[in-house]
Design brief:
115 residues; mainly alpha; 2 domains; 5 helices; two-stranded antiparallel ribbon
């Protein structure tokens, strides 16, 4: 998700740059250039669509980050579940030490037994 979000965001940024530089003028009879309403409308639609693509890429990237955080939290909880209450009581570790290990993110069962 993160990689796709980055790719889509970069495509959106390139499209925004191209759409801003889009020429919405046409040559007039006197050699001057005048703005064409249809081309201006097309330019504004292209800018809007490009910004939407950037937004979608940002959302995909952010959801990829949140997904990774959720996976690591699930792994922490699963490793704690694997430890039985009886093993923790017999190991001599008090509850404050267990809370410190959980908040630091080091919840592998082997780290509890090494103390």
């Amino acid at each position: 998700m993160k990689r796709n979000g980055i790719i889509i965001f970069v495509i959106g940024v390139v499209a925004v740059c191209l759409s801003i530089n889009y020429d919405a003028t046409v040559p007039a009879n006197d050699g001057d250039r005048t703005y064409n309403i249809g081309l201006l409308n097309q330019k504004s639609n292209f800018v809007l669509l490009s910004c939407f693509v950037c937004l979608v890429g940002s959302v995909l990237y952010a959801s990829g980050i949140l997904e990774n955080k959720a996976e690591t939290q699930n792994e922490r909880l699963l490793s704690l579940i694997r430890l039985s209450k009886k093993d923790l009581i017999h190991s001599g570790i008090d509850h404050q030490e267990i809370d410190e290990i959980i908040t630091k993110g080091n919840t592998k069962p082997t780290q509890l037994w090494e103390k």
